[in-house]
Write a structure and sequence with these properties.
19-stranded mixed sheet, 422 residues, two-stranded antiparallel sheet, 21 strands, 4 helices
């Protein structure tokens, strides 16, 4: 019996030694062609690894690849839709035995994602594995079953840290007989943490349209997201001397609903134009502050308890936007104790807008701006208003109140009561 036990121990040691030797000497580079072929077949686009590939199997499954490229269709401007300088990730082995995916690290560096849309409507991000609506055409995997035939619970997930560094997104919209429209977003660094039973955290900073921004997000746990139970969310955004904060509850158990408190403030409202596509002119609003409760429901958005300070002007009100046959309708009321029309002078000269020595003030004539009358045909509205103290260029104008009804592009203001000053 003793000799049998010794022999069994020797066999076990030899097996463990052989496995250890295999793990230590495993060369993933030998399988580069097969890995590239499998990745290519999986997404329907040519995938190549221009740099080295390394892999270790113990104590964690760790893989690092460099110079990864995903090819574009032939009609695009750029040869690659996605390039990655480095992709490095590590998954703990032992937790897998307990049906837990423990991601120790994910690091992506020098990422460039180029989205392109042709004048014909072709989109390079619609891979062969998706249909024209962006829905996957792959079959859903069969559910994992327990020994008794019941559906196994989902794998738990623990994410120590995901880091993205030097990420560039670009979108190129081709136009027939015209120059394409190109927008770029640069993320200097993005960090995501989602430890088990702890709230998800995301922090990011970057540059859009030449302006720096910072984003901080705290959301529900991964378990809450998997179970689609309501969770708390807190979001902060800073850009162009403005700050926004959102706190409340999000419910994804069915159609997404939310109930959050919104606060936003900044030194000059017109500066937000610099981070809006096409840089539309915006009213001055120096400074501005907005506080409100936002409730989101299917086909409905409600803004209640609105407080807006816009330069010298002050507003209170409640609004609701309802989608009726895909056409939005705004219903609400607004009251202003003080409304200085100079606060809403449009900033049209970008260089003058940045010149602190020549700001637009209550005594300065604003450059005329064409009103977007065509926008009246895109939505309906029913709003009551009460402006109790109208001023302009340091002169009192009086007060005005009434009801504005916009329907099918036809605007009717009735009743309208005006009391002129003096």
């Amino acid at each position: 019996m003793k000799k049998i036990l010794i022999g069994l121990l020797v066999i076990i040691v030899l097996i463990v030694g052989a496995l250890a030797a295999f793990v230590m000497t495993f060369d993933v580079e030998k399988y580069r062609p097969q890995i590239e072929a499998q990745a290519t077949n999986a997404i329907g686009r040519t995938v190549s690894f221009g740099g080295p590939i390394s892999m270790s199997l113990w104590p964690s499954l760790a893989i690092q690849v460099q110079d990864v490229r995903v090819a574009n269709p032939t009609w695009t401007e750029k040869r690659s839709m996605l390039t990655a300088g480095t992709i490095d990730f590590s998954i703990a082995i032992l937790p897998l035995l307990q049906r837990k995916i423990a991601i120790e690290r994910v690091f992506l560096d020098n990422i460039e994602l180029s989205l392109e849309e042709s004048a014909k409507g072709e989109k390079n991000w619609l891979l062969p594995i998706f249909d024209q609506t962006g829905k996957s055409v792959a079959q859903e995997p069969a559910p994992v079953l327990e020994e008794d035939g019941t559906k196994a619970p989902p794998l738990s997930l623990d994410v120590s840290q995901i880091t993205l560094s030097n990420v560039r997104f670009s979108h190129r919209l081709g136009r027939a007989n015209d120059t394409p429209v190109i927008h770029e977003l640069l993320l200097n660094r993005v960090t995501v943490r989602a430890p088990e039973n702890q709230r998800i955290g995301l922090d990011a900073n970057g540059v859009f349209a030449g302006e720096e921004f910072n984003i901080g997000l705290r959301a529900g746990t991964l378990a809450e997201l998997q179970a689609k139970t309501p969770f708390q969310v807190a979001l902060t955004v800073t850009a162009v001397d403005s700050d926004m904060e959102v706190q409340g509850t999000v419910d994804m158990s069915g159609p997404v609903t939310a109930d959050v408190n919104l606060a936003m403030q900044g030194s000059r409202f017109a500066d937000l134009s610099r981070i809006i596509v096409n840089h539309p002119p915006l009213p001055e609003g120096k400074p501005y502050r907005l506080v409100a409760r936002l409730q989101v429901a299917p086909n409905e958005y409600q803004l209640s308890g609105l407080v807006l300070e816009f330069g010298e002007s002050q507003f209170n009100g409640n609004f609701k936007v309802v989608m009726e046959d895909e056409r939005p309708k705004l219903v609400g009321n607004i009251v202003s104790e003080v409304l200085n029309l100079a606060d809403f002078a449009m900033a049209t000269d970008e260089s003058a807008a940045d010149d602190e020595t020549a700001p637009v003030t209550a005594g300065t004539a604003a450059t005329p701006v064409a009103l977007p009358w065509q926008a009246l045909e895109t939505a309906d509205a029913d709003v009551t208003f009460d402006f109790r103290n109208l001023t302009s260029v340091n002169a009192a104008l009086g007060s005005v109140n009434g009801r504005a009804d916009l329907s099918g592009g036809r605007l009717v203001v009735e009743p309208l009561v005006a009391n002129l000053a003096g």
